[in-house]
Amino acid sequence: MNGNEERPVQGGQFEMGWGSDVIAQMLRDFGVDYITLNPGASYRGFHDSLVNYLGNRDPEMLVTMHEEHAVAIAHGYAKVADRPMAVAVHSNVGLMHATMAIFNAWCDRVPMLILGATGPIDAAQRRPWIEWIHTAKDQGALIRDYVKWDDQPGSPEAAVESMLRAWQITRTAPHGPVYVCMDLGMQEQRLDAPIPIPDVGRYAPGGDPVPSPSDLAHAVERLLNAERPLILAGRGTRDDKAWADRIRLAERLDARVLTDLKAGAAFPTDHDLHPLPPIKRPSKAACAMIAEADVILSLEWIDLAGTFKQALGHSETEATLINCTVDPYLHNGWSMDHHILPAADIRIMCRPDSLVPALLDELGEGKKKSAWAPIVAEPAERSGGDALDYQDIADALSAALGDRKSTITGVPIGWPGYAWPIKAPLDFLGGDGGAGIGSGPGIAIGAALALKDSKRVPVAILGDGDTTMGINALWTAAKYGIPLLIVVANNRSYFNDELHQERIARTRSRPEENRWIGQRLEDPVPDIPAIARGFGWQATDAVATKHELQQAMAEAVTNVAGGGQSLVDVHIMRGYDPTVVNPGGMDKSG
Ligand SMILES: Cc1ncc(C[n+]2csc(CCOP(=O)(O)OP(=O)(O)O)c2C)c(N)n1
Ligand SMILES: [Mg+2]
């Protein structure tokens, strides 16, 4: 990929002769570009197929230092590409390491094909000790509650159907990871003759469902009669046409639009119809806007009724609610990531990208004038004093980027929505889905991999806790020449939890000043730039003044734009932006 390709001798010059060759061949037939992995003997047969049978291309292996990163990279890739890549994890222990990242990917509704291994299932074939401790009777049970589907095919012939089904299911909305566990005996079975693989195109997922004519007519009538229509633009795709359609719809209806920092870019935040910064929790002005709307169109908004509960004090809105979502097709009752069940007047179970053009067709030409009074965002109150804050990071980044386009792959918890304008689908990729920290670096690397030829500068802005937990992901970016800038918003603390301790102490009338105990990342402060350099990255020592920040950022952006990997460690205020600490709404529990 960067001249560092690992090319096997005689790579790709063998006939399909072993069970695992079939699986490898199918990845190629699917058009999978990359497979992230951490190796293990349970899939030594499959590893051989990737190296010798396929020649380590299409897909190419990307080695990671932890299975969590292998999955997080596929997660970040799917966030940009809207399509899956593959991951291979060792039998049970590798999968155990991968679990949190799989949960994040599930909650973020991204597609991904995970290959695992076990066995041999036939005990008579098992090597003593290691293959016994690495065989589980139902390995998929470890993750079944947060993947869409899993299987453990019993023969190479059965693996063909298993892979076809996995590939189809992961690419059918709502998306989510799928898992195929390869019995070691099946992988290492010698084939008498190559196994025919059907035309994989005939197993493609169907087109997206469209709204029923009656739902559509009903929705159009409500939207046309709305005085103050509000669009809650939640989880979407990176598709340019869908982006343009959302803008046309808002303009046609003179609606107001709100977006969510937990989801990727869904609407230009500097558009007149998007008057408030994107939110994680509703700001005071966002609460007022939600309360004033008489018709709300939710486009796959994450935790819709929870947002109403925060904004209105109760989970049902009095406005007419049109709820467009496919998410309920995924809910399974193990995790509560389905959130509060929203009451809705019209429930349209298709993807927003299918509803919005249908609405535009029905609405036809013209421009409605709504009755919204001007909406004024609260002025930003910065609280860093002499210390650097989030806006300082944004300002330095913006200056260093100049005219270059960037993709922000993630932001830390205390990041204010006003700090960075979002103008295009690839400008911002949203959150990690499951709030499992340690995922930030891996997701960023996966996103950067998918952006490699886009001319965009990928930038991850991460907390120090998130960065240090996932720090050995960095090596993979250096090894494979994946350009990426990581900016650490370093408050030397698991600060989110300091706020929780403060609230608990307040409730219990105990000393709030003890909130820091058991939370600080200091004595010593981890030398993150030194660690990054150790993994082959460019990183200057931590910066704490505007001048140092600007210099470090300029050097870093130049390096990344030239294909390198840079980390800027910014010692910022120990606090969140005031808009994040004091959101609006009735529920202040944080
Ligand atoms: C795997 C995991 N462990 C622990 C937590 C609990 N937790 C949530 S936020 C947080 C602190 C994150 O620290 P950092 O990334 O530095 O962000 P900060 O709040 O300091 O900006 C922790 C420990 C979690 N969400 N995920
Ligand atoms: Mg921190």
Low-confidence stretches: none
The largest beta-sheet arranges its strands as: 2-1-3-4-6-5
Instruction: State the helical fraction.
Output: 25-40%
What overall form do the CA principal axes indicate?
A: globular
In this entry the ligands are:
thiamine diphosphate, magnesium ion
Content of β-strand: 5-15%
Q: What structural class do you assign from the helix and strand content? A: alpha/beta
Q: Would you mind describing this structure in some detail?
A:
With 590 residues, the protein is an alpha/beta fold. The chain is 35% helix and 13% strand. The protein has 20 helices and 16 strands. It has helices spanning 19-30, 44-53, 67-81, 93-107, 130-133, 156-170, 184-187, 213-224, 240-253, 284-292, 304-312, 352-363, 390-401, 440-450, 464-469, 474-479, 495-507, 528-534, 546-561, 578-581, and strands spanning 34-37, 60-63, 86-88, 112-118, 149-151, 177-183, 229-233, 256-259, 295-299, 320-324, 346-348, 406-410, 457-463, 484-490, 538-539, 565-571. Strands 2-1-3-4-6-5 form a six-stranded parallel sheet, with helices on both faces. The protein has a five-stranded parallel sheet with strand order 8-7-9-10-11, sandwiched between helices. A five-stranded parallel sheet has the order 12-13-14-16-15, with helices on both faces. Strand 3 (86-88), helix 4 (93-107) and strand 4 form a beta-alpha-beta unit. Helix 1 (19-30) packs across helix 2 (44-53). The radius of gyration is 25 Å and the shape is globular.
